[in-house]
Structure formats: structure tokens, C-alpha cells
From TrEMBL:
GO cellular component annotations of the record: membrane
Protein name listed in UniProt: Polyol/monosaccharide transporter 1
Originating organism: Medicago truncatula
Spans traversing the lipid bilayer: 29-57, 69-86, 98-116, 122-144, 156-174, 186-209, 325-347, 353-377, 384-413, 452-476
Topology term for the membrane: Multi-pass membrane protein
A molecular function (GO) term: carbohydrate:proton symporter activity
PANTHER family: POLYOL TRANSPORTER 5, SOLUTE CARRIER FAMILY 2, FACILITATED GLUCOSE TRANSPORTER
Length: 522
């Protein structure tokens, strides 16, 4: 071969070296696992959606006050705290997979109790049981999905719980419309009772899922873990890398390759709460603040008020008649579900941070516009069609912008940033904050609307969302593409961006001084 051809071949090879690597194909096995696990979230979504319409008929049938309806709708979020608090320890004890089965079984019983409720007190008991099941489901689905997902598609797969929450909300709205034609006593009971069906499908489907590889390693079952990792990773090399990182986090020597080993560091929750709250490292403290903050602001911006009370909001806006109200509510569920599907394909392409900031910015604009339009309608003596149309449009734009970022990213982000040793309990704490905030909003919205007007309530939500945007901008670093074990290194320096900027400016000044000195000496 001539020297010219050799040089040309080397040049082509070098150019190929600079070509971007092809993105790995979506792992179908991990996709299936994430979908099955995330189906638990449909339970919460269905309950939220169905109660928005069922409340109209429960109030008429049981003749209860607005205050009792508020408590009925919102209390399930408080009840779910019991499940969320127990889920971390339960999942570390019996595994992520059987915890999902347990959640479905509890909700099944709760749905049946609600469907056969003869009075308000019995209905509250049914919601207590269902709430515990929802608490389990909310905590375990994102954790399991994050632990089986390869880094290349973790954002896409970990957003599935939010997809199914929205699908459940839409199904609940459709159920409201479908059963609204039945008799008053039968209609709302059917709406609530059929919620038992998804939990049965869930329990059967989960049997086909593998256990979480991280839980298997914590139990010393390395042979089973590597089998799962080989199926859920993009390559054999990635599977080995993930195994090595999990072994290191679990305190297993890197050169230990036995199928079953004894794990000296037991990850069953001992000492976790002290490390999370009493003696956290700077990185863990930052992670806790970020996780709890993102859950708080997601709910404090009023999303559950819009979803649960959308018939009330539309009635205040000027829409009359149960059928028209329920159809308008179905539109909310449809838009919410559509945009969450769009978001799943954008998470791993654009990153968590840009989508979250864009989403919350859109929510702020929508909430403030909705507040203005409802205030104008409230103070007008004539029917203003343009204001009614604007109110409907801004409700839809609010749920759309929420679903494109704040909805899915909250669950993705909070499930992926905690280190393995803290993940189950840390994720449970996030769910607790999420449900408490949701419960407070849900149980006070009608009273708040009467106290400061419905427009004033949305001005308040808009202000909270604005503060949330500032919090996210300052406190949340990007996590896209990082392995779960690399995540901790991204935290601990809240002012990382400004500090790096100052250091860069200082370095540039020093370089300029050196160059100036060189120029002068020459």
C-alpha cells in the first residue's frame, strides 16, 4: 500500500472516531418491566378522576355539606401516608415486586368497600383502605422503574408512573360520564367500585416481572442480579458496570463474583433516617432538600385542585348542566394524558432541568391568566363568552404545561437522585410531602375559594408556582444520562454554577495577567 493511501486510511479512521455514537435502541425488556410496575399508579389516577364527578352525586345522595365533600376527596392523600411510610421498609424486606402486588391487593379491597358503601362513614373507611394501597403504589413504582432502567432511557421509563396516573384520571372522568345516566344511588357506587378491576390486572401482570437488581444485590443474590441486569441493560458491558457500582454501594468487594454472598452491610433501613435528617453529608442534605422541594411545589401549585374540582371550576366559569360539566372535564383528562405522553419522549432528549423550568413557567402564566378571567366573570353581571372561553383554555393550558414537565419530572428526579442505601426511605419521604401537600390543597380548595374568591385562589397558586420556579433554578442540577451511583456527586454544592463561573473568571483574569506580563517582557 502506498504511503498516500495509508495516510488517507488513517485520516478516515480518525474522522470516524469523532462521529457521535449511535444512541442504543430502546430496551424492550426494561420497557415492559417499567410499564407493568407503573400500572400501580393508575390506581391513584382513577381515584382522583372518578371522585371529581362522583362527588356531585355523593353530595346529592348522602346529603352532605361542601366541607364533608372536601374531606372525602382530600383525605385519601393523608391516608396514603401510612402506605408510603411503610412501603420503604416493606420493599426492603419482601422486595420491590411483591410490594407492588401488596399495594394492588389493598386497593382492591378499598375499591370494593367504597362501591358498597351504605353511608358517609362507611365510604370514609373504604377510602382509608384504598388510601393505604395508593401510598404503597406511589412510592414503589418509581423506585422499581429507576432501578431496572438503563441510564440511556431512565427518564423515559421512570416517567411511566405519571403516564399511568394521567391515564387513570382520564378513565375516571370517562367512568363518571358513563355511569352518570344510572340512578342516583347506583351511579356513583358503580363509578367507585369498578376501580377494583385495574388492581386485579396489576396483580396478575406483576408475576411476569423480575425483581429489582439492586434489591437482589442487597440480599447477596449476585447471580440473579446479573441475569436481570443483562436483560435490562443496553449492553453486557453496561450490565457489568451497573453491577460493579451496585456492589460498591452495597459494600460487596468488587472481585467477589459468587452467585450468592453474605452482605455485611444490611440495607434494611437501620441508620438511614439518621443519615437523611440528623447527620447528612452536604450532598445528602442537598438531595433531601431537592427531593422534598420538588414534591412540595408540584402539589402546592394547585394541580389536584384543578383535577379534582374541575366541574366546580367550569361551573364558576359559566358552564351549566352535569353532562356539559363532565364532558369539559373529560377534555381536561384527555389533554393531560396527551401531553404526558409527549413528555416521556422528551425527558432523555432535552434533560430534566430545561423541561421543568419551561413547564413551571407555562404553569405560572396559565394560573395567573385563569385567575384574571375567573375574577372578571365573578364581578360581571352579564355572561362574558370570551372570559368563559379563556377560562377553559387556561385550565387546559395549565394541565398541558404541568404534564410536559412538573408532572413526570417530579417522580423521575426524586427516584433517581438518592443513593442506593437511602433510596427506598428517601423516595417514601418525597411521597409523604407530595400527599400531605395534595391533601391540604384538596381539603381546603372549596373553603379557600369562598374565603378569597376562586380567582384569588388561583392567584395564590400562581404565586407559589413562581417561587417554585426560582427554587428549581437554584437547587436542582441536571441528572440526565448519569448512572444512579454517579448521581450523588452532582449534589452538595448548591451554588455550584455561580461558584464555577467565579472560578472561571478568576482563571481567565490570571491567564490575562500572565499574557500581559509576557507581552510586556517581550
Amino acid at each position: 500500500m502506498s504511503e498516500g493511501k495509508i495516510v488517507e486510511a488513517k485520516a478516515q479512521k480518525n474522522l470516524q472516531d469523532f462521529d457521535p455514537q449511535k444512541k442504543p435502541k430502546r430496551n424492550k425488556y426494561a420497557f415492559a418491566c417499567a410499564m407493568l410496575a407503573s400500572m400501580t399508579s393508575i390506581l391513584l389516577g382513577y381515584d382522583i378522576g372518578v371522585m371529581s364527578g362522583a362527588a356531585i352525586y355523593i353530595k346529592r345522595d348522602l346529603k352532605v355539606s361542601d366541607g364533608k365533600i372536601e374531606v372525602l376527596l382530600g383525605i385519601i392523600n393523608i391516608y396514603s401516608l401510612i402506605g408510603s411510610c411503610l412501603a420503604g421498609r416493606t420493599s426492603d424486606w419482601i422486595g420491590r415486586r411483591y410490594t407492588i402486588v401488596f399495594a394492588g391487593a389493598i386497593f382492591f379491597v378499598g375499591a370494593l368497600l367504597m362501591g358498597f358503601s351504605p353511608n358517609y362513614n362507611f365510604l370514609m373507611f373504604g377510602r382509608f383502605v384504598a388510601g393505604v394501597g395508593i401510598g404503597y403504589a406511589l412510592m414503589i413504582a418509581p423506585v422499581y422503574t429507576a432501578e431496572v432502567s438503563p441510564a440511556s432511557s431512565r427518564g423515559f421509563l421512570t416517567s411511566f408512573p405519571e403516564v399511568f396516573i394521567n391515564s387513570g384520571i382520564l378513565l375516571g372522568y370517562i367512568s363518571n360520564y358513563a355511569f352518570s345516566k344510572l340512578s342516583l344511588k347506583l351511579g356513583w357506587r358503580m363509578m367507585l367500585g369498578v376501580g377494583a378491576i385495574p388492581s386485579v390486572i396489576l396483580a396478575v401482570g406483576v408475576l411476569a416481572m423480575p425483581e429489582s437488581p439492586r434489591w437482589l444485590v442487597m440480599r447477596g443474590r449476585l447471580g440473579d442480579a446479573i441475569k436481570v441486569l443483562n436483560k435490562t441493560s443496553d449492553s453486557k458491558e453496561e450490565a457489568q458496570l451497573r453491577l460493579a457500582e451496585i456492589k460498591q454501594a452495597a459494600g460487596i468487594p468488587e472481585d467477589c463474583n459468587d452467585d450468592v454472598v453474605e452482605v455485611k452491610v444490611k440495607n434494611t433501613g437501620e441508620g438511614v433516617w439518621k443519615e437523611l435528617f440528623l447527620y447528612p453529608t452536604p450532598a445528602v442534605r442537598h438531595i433531601v432538600i431537592a427531593a422534598l422541594g420538588i414534591h412540595f411545589f408540584q402539589q402546592a401549585s394547585g394541580v389536584d385542585a384543578v383535577v379534582l374540582y374541575s366541574p366546580t371550576i367550569f361551573k364558576k366559569a359559566g358552564i351549566n348542566g352535569d353532562t356539559h360539566l363532565l364532558i369539559a372535564t373529560i377534555a381536561v383528562g384527555f389533554v393531560k394524558t396527551l401531553f404526558i405522553l409527549v413528555a416521556t419522549f422528551m425527558l432523555d432528549r432535552y434533560g430534566r432541568r430545561p423541561l421543568l423550568l419551561t413547564s413551571v413557567g407555562g404553569m405560572v402564566v396559565s394560573l395567573l391568566t385563569l385567575a384574571v378571567s375567573l375574577t372578571i366573570i365573578d364581578h360581571s353581571n352579564t355572561k362574558l363568552n370570551w372570559a368563559i372561553g379563556l377560562s377553559i383554555a387556561t385550565v387546559l393550558s395549565y394541565v398541558a404545561t404541568f404534564s410536559i414537565g412538573a408532572g413526570p419530572i417530579t417522580w423521575v428526579y426524586s427516584s433517581e437522585i438518592f443513593p442506593l442505601r437511602l433510596r427506598a426511605q428517601g423516595a417514601a419521604c418525597g411521597v409523604v410531602v407530595n400527599r400531605v401537600t395534595s391533601g391540604v390543597i384538596s381539603m381546603t380548595f372549596l373553603s379557600l375559594s369562598k374565603g378569597i374568591t376562586i380567582g384569588g385562589a388561583f392567584f395564590l397558586f400562581g404565586g407559589i408556582a413562581t417561587i417554585g420556579w426560582i427554587f428549581f433554578y437554584i437547587m436542582l442540577p441536571e441528572t440526565q444520562g448519569k448512572t444512579l451511583e454517579e448521581m450523588e456527586a452532582s449534589f452538595g454544592k448548591i451554588w455550584r454554577k455561580s461558584k464555577n463561573t467565579k472560578e472561571a473568571e478568576k482563571d481567565n483574569a490570571q491567564v490575562a495577567q500572565v499574557q500581559l506580563g509576557t507581552n510586556v517582557s517581550t
